[in-house]
Each structure stands twice: as C-alpha cells, then as structure tokens.
Amino acid sequence: MTKKQQTRRIGLIGGMSWRSTALYYERLNKALETELGMHRSFCGDICNLDYAALLSMADASDWKGVEAMLSDAATRLARSGCEVIALTAVTAHRWYQPVCSATTGTVPHILTAAADRLDFLGIRKAGVLGTSLTCGSDFVADYLGRGERKLIFLDNNEQDELDHQIQAVLTASDRIDAGRGTLRRAVASLQFHGAEVVVLACTELPLLLPIDAPGITLLDCVALHIDDICNHILSESHA
C-alpha cells in the first residue's frame, strides 16, 4: 500500500504582511490534512519578519538591507533543519537568488507553478496584478512572460489605486470589502485590454476572493505556490 508522508521540513519566511502569512499557514495545513489525513499539519518553522522594518528600508531604497534581512531569515530556517524554504510574498522574490544562496535547501519560486499553468492553458496574453515593485521587476517577465507570451499591466492611475489597496488596507487592516471593488475593476481593465487570464501576483490579493469576474480565469499564486511546496515536502512511501 502506498501513502504520502512529509519527508522534508518546511520553513516559511513570513510577516510580509502577517495577514498573507496567516493565509499560507492555513492553506498549507489544510493541504497536508487533505493529503495525509485528519489532524495532520505541517512540520516546520516560520521566521516572521517585521514588515514595518522592511517597508522602511524600501522607502529609503535600502535594497541591500532588505536582501540581508531575507537572506538571514533563510539561513536561520536552514539551521533549524528546514530543507524547503518559501518566501510568502511575491515582491520578496526580487531577492530570490540571494535567498537561495543563503541555504542549501530548496526554495520553490512563487511564479513557477503559475508560469507552468499558463503554459498548460496555452495562454498568449496574461494580465498581471501585483504591487508596482513586483510588476516592474524583471523576474515577472522572466517567469510569466516566457516564450512569446504578452503580459498586460494596469496603467499608472490604476496601479496607484491597487498599490494603495494593498499597502494601506490589505496589509494594515481587516477592512477588505471595499478592496473587492478595486480588484474587480483591475481585472475588468486587464480583460478589456486583451488578457485571457489574470495572475494574482500578490499574496494579499487572495484575501479578497471570491469576486465576480465573469469570462476570465484568475490564477491565485498562493494556491499554486502551496501546491508546489507540497510537491517538495511530501513523498510516497510503501506501508
């Protein structure tokens, strides 16, 4: 008889914000309960960073400081025995390579599974929603825009509205109802400009789901990332 078990310890680099980290915690535990059975939860650690400190560094363009904080978190998780380490924020993947260099473990990239899903669906035009820092990063095009796929982003005014929603509301309060309207408008805009699907490339945006978005598929990067993490920490054994 073949059954799955967790064979590799997971470390989450969280706190960016704690609300999306809580979403990872809940979804990862639910995924393992589904795979392994009732009352099962993941074995691992969470290194919860001070988001205010990271934002202060970002405001000062202290990118080396951000890199050092993320890399240190990866090193500490590796020393605690974590063999798989995950960044729980899309923007933090700007420092994916330094984080990988800080550990000998596996670091599943949050956009790998989303890119694979776009390939599987045969998508030629994909809309991308995330922070302006994420959407302006090379790694988004490297992963989601591979091949000849066209990526569609919001215009400056729409992006400013989404940035405000993410940073001033979703990461700072539980008042998310108004944010659903912002997300619906953003999705509709990308759809109007030709997007066949929309990638939610921000780990706060799934907090707004579900929304009414007829005629278009939304790819939830957190859900896809959780699936990818499970593939790295679970393996089959013969009982």
Automatic annotation (TrEMBL):
It comes from the Bacteria. One of its GO terms (molecular function) is amino-acid racemase activity. It holds the Pfam family Asp_Glu_race. InterPro entries: Asp/Glu/hydantoin_racemase, Asp/Glu_race, Asp/Glu_racemase_AS_2. This is Uncharacterized protein. It comes from Pseudorhodoplanes sinuspersici.
